[in-house]
Structure formats: structure tokens, C-alpha cells
Design brief:
Elements lengths: L2 E2 H8 L2 E3 L5 E2 L1 E2 L9 E4 L16 E5 L11 E5 L2 H16 L4 E2 L4 E2 L4 E2 L4 E2 L4 E2 L4 E2 L4 E2 L4 E2 L4 E2 L4 E2 L4 E2 L4 E2 L4 E2 L4 E2 L6 E3 L5 E3 L5 E4 L4 E2 L4 E2 L6 E4 L4 E2 L4 E2 L4 E2 L4 E2 L4 E2 L4 E2 L4 E2 L4 E2 L4 E2 L4 E2 L4 E2 L8 E4 L2 E3 H12 L1 H19 L1
Parallel strand pairs: 4-5, 5-6, 6-7, 8-11, 9-12, 10-13, 11-14, 12-15, 13-16, 14-17, 15-18, 16-19, 17-20, 18-21, 19-24, 20-25, 21-26, 24-27, 25-28, 26-29, 27-30, 28-31, 29-32, 30-33, 31-34, 32-35, 33-36, 34-37, 35-38, 37-39
Antiparallel strand pairs: 1-3, 2-7, 22-23, 39-40
């Protein structure tokens, strides 16, 4: 699709400086701009590129004043970065605005759905599934019995949502994600043979939640595994049974959270973090990448290491660790002097 500078300025509530009728049909980095592309300038380090970019339209901050001639049309806005992000969101909505039911696909007779849905080829909707308005289900998605999915949510190709799970409004479930598989529940008998403990709960995902590609969220043994409003999960994360993650917490790739752990609101958890089960992590906690968490964490703590230490203590200790060879050498020299002095 093509958009004029005037149309884009209307979406962003911006001011056009240059040719208002120039059109764009793709997005680009400012240093890689081409004729017909739209870009933005937010970081002052990239200012020099605006004088050489071939992008047809560039979004800039309202206070930007060019010091040289420009070939690109400008759209001035309050915040160029946020404006471009808004435009990306709009672009994705237009690009992904598919409607209709493709064949072959399977819809159980008891399944219901709202207006403007998209159901891709080879998708499966089980018994009593309920889809809201404008839900997009891409090809090869499996949605089990009694699943509900709220308005404007998207489930990308190949994702699997097991029975009885609930997905809220405006959620995104990326390809390969699995919601509601059995939790890792096994109990050894007197001979040490593991017997499966039935996992009879479900997964509840509230509104505005993103689940990355290849991420798994296990159903609860009893009750629910819960992702609260605004939770953001990166790719390849493991969330075990009965875990609860608080509102607007973000977790980076390859992190694992063991069963029944409760994570608070507005936490930031780096990649490859390991979190044991049955602990409580407070609100606004920050955990650095590759940390191991084996205890309860209070609100506002910042942690690093495995097992994780207080962030400040870890950094102080790490300085000594880096100097350990020198320290050992000095101790050896002191021992030699002491021994020589004793003879």
C-alpha cells in the first residue's frame, strides 16, 4: 500500500515540510533509505544521515532545524521515536488485517466467533471454543476444547493452545508457542518409578500479553497458571505449572521459571535466568542475565550471579575475582619472605 506524506502526518498529528503528495510504500533505516521509503530520526548520532538519505519521507522531532539542504520530505512531530513506533503498529495492523475462513480448516459445531475473524488453512477449533471480534488465527494453529480468546488477539502459525485455557484481549501468541501443555508433575513410588500426577488446571492469559515464538506456558496441576495484564515473554521461555507473573513484567529469552513461583509487577528479567519453584519475587525486581534465583526476593531488589547476589555486592566481589591471580601471587611472595625471614 502507498501512503502520502499528508496521510502519514494525519495519523501522527504532524506537520509536513516538503512535498505533501510524495508517496511511500515501505519502511527503512535512515542510513539505508531508498526512494519510496519512510524513515525517522530520533538519535542525534544519526543526524548526519538525514542530509544524504534517499528516503522519500523522514519523521523528525518538532525542534529539528536542518543546517543543510534536504532531499527528503520531513514530518515534524513531538517525539519521532514514539511516532515511528505508532506507525509501525499501524503498519502491522494493515498488513495483518486478514478476514475470512480459509479451507481446509476445522470448526466444531459448538464453536462460536465474532465479527471480522481470520481463520487460516489447516487451523482447528475444538468444541465450545469462543473467539471474540477481529481475532486472527493463522494456518496450522490448534485450539483445544473450551478455549476462549478475546477481541483483537492474534495467534500466529503453528501455535498450540490446549483445552480450557483463556486468552484475553489484544494478545499476541507467536509461532510455535504452546499454551496449556501438562506441567512437569511426576511422583516416585516405593520403587523409584515415576508416576504421572494429572494436570487438571489451565492457563489464564489476561489482556495485552505477548508470548514469544517457541515459548511454553504449562497448565496448572490444580487451579491456574496466570500471566497478568501486559506481561511480555520473549522467545523460548519456559513457564511451569501454577506460576503467576504480575502485571507488566517482561522476561527475556531462554529463562525458565519452575512451578508455583509468584513473580510480581513491573519486573525485568534478563535472558537465561533460572528461577526455582515455590518462591515469591517482589515487585519492580531486576534480574541480570544468566542469574540463578533460589530464594524469595523483596521488592525493588537488583540481582546478578548464580546463585544471585545483591547487584552491588556482586560487582564489588567480581572486581576482587578479576584480581585473584595478582592477589594469589602477592600472598605467595609474602609467604616466601616470611619463610626466609624465619631462618
Amino acid at each position: 500500500m502507498k501512503f502520502t506524506a499528508t496521510q502519514i502526518a494525519g495519523i501522527l498529528e504532524g506537520e509536513v515540510l516538503g512535498n505533501p503528495e510524495i508517496t511511500v510504500h515501505k519502511l527503512s533505516k535512515i542510513e539505508e533509505g531508498e526512494n519510496g521509503s519512510l524513515t525517522f530520526l530520533a538519535n542525534p548520532k544519526y543526524t548526519h544521515y538525514i542530509y544524504s538519505t534517499k528516503a522519500s519521507v523522514t519523521i523528525v522531532n518538532k525542534d529539528f532545524e536542518p543546517e543543510q539542504d534536504l532531499s527528503t520530505t520531513l514530518i515534524k512531530v513531538e517525539d519521532a521515536y514514539n511516532a515511528f513506533s505508532k506507525l509501525l503498529e499501524y503498519y502491522n495492523q494493515v498488513k495483518n488485517n486478514k478476514v475470512g475462513v480459509e479451507n481446509p480448516s476445522y470448526i466444531a459445531e459448538s464453536a462460536t466467533y465474532g465479527t471480522d475473524i481470520y481463520l487460516g488453512a489447516f487451523a482447528y477449533l475444538g468444541e465450545n471454543v469462543k473467539l471474540g471480534n477481529n481475532v486472527k488465527i493463522y494456518p496450522n494453529v490448534y485450539i483445544g476444547d473450551n478455549v476462549t480468546i478475546g477481541d483483537n488477539s492474534v495467534v500466529f502459525a503453528g501455535a498450540k493452545i490446549y483445552s480450557d485455557c483463556s486468552i484475553g484481549k489484544e494478545c499476541v501468541i507467536h509461532s510455535g508457542a504452546i499454551i496449556g501443555a501438562d506441567g512437569f508433575g511426576f511422583s516416585p513410588d516405593e520403587n523409584g518409578v515415576y508416576k504421572k500426577v494429572p494436570q487438571t488446571g489451565n492457563v489464564i492469559i489476561e489482556d495485552h500479553v505477548d508470548v514469544g515464538a517457541g515459548t511454553t506456558v504449562d497448565r496448572a496441576t490444580l487451579g491456574s497458571t496466570i500471566l497478568r495484564n501486559g506481561v511480555k515473554l520473549d522467545n523460548q521461555i519456559m513457564i511451569a505449572h501454577n506460576v503467576e507473573i504480575g502485571e507488566h513484567t517482561a522476561i527475556a529469552a531462554q529463562t525458565g521459571v519452575a512451578g508455583s513461583t509468584k513473580i510480581g509487577k513491573h519486573c525485568l528479567i534478563g535472558g537465561q535466568v533460572g528461577i526455582v519453584g515455590h518462591i515469591v519475587i517482589g515487585d519492580r525486581v531486576k534480574i541480570q542475565a544468566q542469574s540463578g534465583i533460589g530464594r524469595n526476593i523483596k521488592d525493588d531488589e537488583v540481582l546478578q550471579g548464580s546463585p544471585a547476589l545483591n547487584y552491588g555486592d556482586y560487582n564489588k566481589s567480581y572486581v576482587h575475582f578479576k584480581n585473584l591471580p595478582k592477589i594469589v601471587q602477592k600472598i605467595s611472595e609474602l609467604e616466601k619472605r616470611t619463610q626466609n625471614g624465619s631462618h
